[in-house]
Automatic annotation (TrEMBL):
CDD domains: ATase. One of its GO terms (biological process) is methylation. Residues 9-90 form the Methylated-DNA-[protein]-cysteine S-methyltransferase DNA binding domain. SUPFAM superfamilies: Methylated DNA-protein cysteine methyltransferase, C-terminal domain. This is Methylated-DNA--[protein]-cysteine S-methyltransferase. GO terms for molecular function: methyltransferase activity. PANTHER family: 6-O-METHYLGUANINE DNA METHYLTRANSFERASE (PTHR42942), ALKYLTRANSFERASE-LIKE PROTEIN 1 (PTHR42942:SF1).
Amino acid sequence: MSTVDKSGFFEKVYKVAAQIPEGRVTSYGAIAKYLGAAKSARMVGWAMNASKNREDVPAHRVVNRNGMLTGKSHFGGSNAMQQLLEAEGVKIREMKVLDFDSVFWDPMTQLEEPY
DNA sequence: TCGTTGACATTTC
DNA sequence: CGAAATGCCAACG
């Protein structure tokens, strides 16, 4: 495969995030768990931090376990993240995802085969 | 090598 | 719900 980042960890996160369907959201822990690093959910966030340089990574579709748009703070301090999600059909209330359970996209459940 | 930080998760109070 | 504490791991200085 194309070697973009030898770390691999970031690339995996980017791939999973890039596979998130529109109108859906996932959590850092879910991605981390899918990558086999459930305990390193923070690393997913860290990877996302670098992903900001990557347009292929819809970081706005990634929220924390509580469905809260924690990333907004790093997204530019604006409500753009919320607007993007709402534009895709995701209801946002007070920076939190409504029906999070309904819009929640679990890579482990949706993606049968692993990387 | 060490210490600090962090877009998390979980438990406890 | 909120705040505090703990764990976990990688990046940064």
